[in-house]
Amino acid sequence: MKLITRDTDYAIRSVCFIAKNKKEIVSAAELTDALKIPRPFLRKILQVLDKKGVLKSYKGSGGGFSLGKPADKIFLFDLMKIFQGDFSLNECFLKKIPCPNRGRCVLRRSIKKIEKSVIRQLKPISISSILG
C-alpha cells in the first residue's frame, strides 16, 4: 500500500517546480527535463491539474504552465484527492456485498481512527510549506 501514488508524486513535484521557478510560465519540456518524468505521464497530470484549477495552461509559442492559485493555497491532501480519490487505508474484503459485520467490526473502527488522524495531519501541508 502506498500513501502517495506515482501520479500524485509527479503532480507534487511538478507543482513544486513551477512554484519555486522564477519564470512565470514553465514549459512541459522544462518540467520533463528537470524532473525526469516521462512526457506522456507528465502531460496527463498537467492536464488534470489545469482542469482542476491548480495550474493554468498557456498554449502556443512560449506556452506552458503557471500556478492557478498561490502556493500556500495548494494543499498536498487536495492533490492526493485529485489523483487518488478519497483517502482510505482499508477496503472491506467483500467489496460489492455489504459486510454483515460492518457496524461492529473492531478492526474497521480502529482503521477509521487512523485514517482520520492521517487526514488531519496531511490537510494543512501546502506547497509553500513543502518548499520551506
Mean pLDDT: 90
- Shape descriptor reads elongated
The helical percent reads 40-55%
The CATH topology of the domain at 6-87 and 126-131 comes to Arc Repressor Mutant, subunit A
- The SS-based structural class is mainly alpha
The spatial strand order of the largest sheet comes to: 1-2
Low-confidence runs (pLDDT<50, min 5 residues)?
Answer: none
Helix-strand layout with pairing:
Elements: H1 6-20, H2 28-35, H3 39-51, E1 55-58, E2 64-67, H4 76-84, H5 106-122, H6 127-131
Antiparallel strand pairs: 1-2
Helix pairs in contact: 1-3, 1-4, 2-3
Describe the structure.
The chain has six helices and two strands. With 132 residues, the chain is mostly helical. It has a domain at 6-87 and 126-131: Arc Repressor Mutant, subunit A (Orthogonal Bundle), CATH 1.10.10. The model has no long low-confidence stretch (mean pLDDT 90).
